[in-house]
Structure formats: C-alpha cells, structure tokens
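Entry for the shared binder. Reason: the reviewer on the internal report wants the predicted structure included alongside the sequence.
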Amino acid sequence: MKKLISTIAMSILIAANSFACNDLGTEGFLPNNSLKIPADAKSMMDANLDEKEFNAVIDKVIKIYEPIISTMGGELVVERKWEDGTVNAYAQQIGSTWKVSMFGGLARHEAITSDGFALVVCHEIGHHIGGAPKKKSWWSSSWASNEGQADYFATLKCLRRTFRSEDNAAIMAKVNVPKTVVDTCAEQFSSQEDRLICQRGSMAGMSTAKLFQALRSQTTPPDFNTPDANVVTTTNDKHPATQCRLDTYYTGALCQIDELTDVDQKEEATGTCYRATGDTVGVRPLCWFTPKKS
C-alpha cells in the first residue's frame, strides 16, 4: 500500500511540474482547440510562413537562448513539428530537459506573421526563464512563469534580443504601423533602433492577438487604442482575454528597461517596469496582474 501511495504521489508530482502552458499539459500557448491546418491545406495559400521560414525563426531565437538556458542548468530541446497541423505550442520540463514544442499548424495560420511566430517561440521560452509571477501549484509555485508573464517576457526581453542584430528599418518599412504605436514608441525611446524594435514587438503582438480573436470567433478586433479596463483582484495565471494579451505585448515593448537586464525568478519587479518603483508606462496590465503589496 505504501508503495502504491508513493507511486501515485510521484505521478502527481510529475504531472503537475512537467507541462506549460498549463501544468497538466492540456493547454498551450492557446487554449485547447481542435483546429488543424495540415501542411497540404489550401489555407497555405494565405500563410505567411513556409517550412524554411518556420525553421529559420526558431533557429534565430534558439541561438540566443540555448546557451543562456545551459547556464541555468537546463538543456533546451526544441521539437519542430512542421507536418503536424496543431494550432498551438507547448513548453515542458522533465529534470534538466527543458522542451519547447512548435507546430506547423500554428505557423500556417493566416494571422501569424514571421514576427508573430517568433513571439510564440519567445513565449514558450518565457515559461522556462521568464521570471515571476510563476504558475501556482497545489503546494507552492511551479517552475513555469504564468501566461501573462510569458507574454510580457516575449516582448520585454526575448524579441528585443532577437531583433537587435537585424535590419529593423528595412523590415518595418514594409509594415503598416498604427500612428499610436509609432508615437508612443517615440515617446519612450530616444534612439531610432529602439523605436523600431518597439514597433516591431508591438506588431508581433497584434499578429498573435488576431489569432486569439479568430480562434475565439470574436467580432471585436484587438486594438492598441482600447486597452482592457478590467482589474483583477488576484493575479490570473491562465490565458488572459484577447485585448488583455495585446496590452501585455504592447507594454512589454514600451518598457524602457533594456533586454540585457534580466528578470528574476522570484522577484516581480526585477528587470521590469513596475508601479511601486514609479513606472507608469510599460508595466504589466492590471487585467491579469496584481502587484505584490509592499
């Protein structure tokens, strides 16, 4: 009997600490959905990424974060499932193996741009190293940064590192960026390079927000000018609403804390824009985040 109880307890421990975007592995970057976009689907005519771009985007993000994760004691393993029609992405930890699973179905969705796909890779890496707040487990906090924090990390740190060495002027010259984003990024950053990276991260966020809208069959589109006015009383570890997620990507892009100032796995304020330290722009939206009381 004791052996049976021990086995059950170990199974629960593994299940609760192995997967994100929820700890039981039933949800990923997106809530669980049945949509499949196979590699030979007609919708590929509208896709922004082919298999070569799918791999190239993963490569440029992983090149940065593989050595970083190694210094933290993990081995980053990326599953590249181009043929799989699943419209989602996952993160998983088993011991020192830190896994990210990326699917061709998500990359083939017409809402997803190359930068939007890079944001998803960053989000999944963010579950591993994105800092506090962490998902709550039955007895403590889990290994995984929660959904909102993984979103925030994606534009605050990961995409900035990824975009820093690229020709952002040429890339953004082809993108129709809303005036609100152009003006607000200009207010936050003095250098043109930082302004362009801010715009680029914001528009990557819009790409994924449009994916959320499509999968949720919502008629109201996400908009940089209409932030979510809801205020939670406790931090929400689950997937925020569509507009709230766009707000998080946008504020991450606008935060003036540079990408080389690391977040902390326990302290929410470290490496981030934070209300208690006097920041008013670039802070995590209150539609999912409740700051710790000082």
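Summary line for the report: Residues 20-277 form one domain.
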